[in-house]
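Team,

Forwarding the record for the chain on the shared tracking sheet. I've put the sequence and predicted structure together so nobody has to dig through attachments.
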Amino acid sequence: MMKSLRYPGEGSTLDIKNYPGVVALKRIDDPIARQLQALALHFYDLGFCHDALVEVAKQLHRSKPRSKVRRRKCFLAEALWISSIARYFKCFGGNRSRIKLSPSKVLKDCEDAERDFCYFQALRNKHIVHDENLFSQAFTGVVLRPRAAKPKVEGLLSVAFNKVIVDDDDLLRFMGLVELTIAWVDAKRDELSNNLMKKYEQWEYDDLIALPDIPLTVPSRDQVMTTR
């Protein structure tokens, strides 16, 4: 099973104290290693989704109905809910920095999960991101005075309505989807890690120690617009 590394946030080296007795940490770069890198990013995002959903449940059930605290907690729950959905589907979208997850592989032979995936994907695509369904509506209207009044128009209104579903049913369904995906990613990481362990165990030690160190760059604000 893969272990995690401690990153103190200072300097440019990784702490490998979780691996007692080791002398070096070297970088490998091949197709399987790149898959593992992508899975590590997915695992991080999915962990965020899981923790956010746990907090959503706490926010929704801790306060009395119709109270100011309840309204504030519902606002926080909505923010976490939207963030977790966006973060989850980030794992299934393609980009240059990571290999995307395949829903057909992750959700294989699980019809309920496939149905839930399509539902929440539509919620993400057609409401949260693009405002294409009835969950978000906007209207512009003219406010009229009585027939004989001058002027006839009192004013003009432009209003928006937004519907957010965060209830126990959706929470359970989405949490199940997240947990299923986490389990698949975790198992895949172990599988690929074991394959690489066997491969590099066959190498000569001098070749292993000659591999490059892991170049860890602590990001700064001026790198926000730079693609790695």
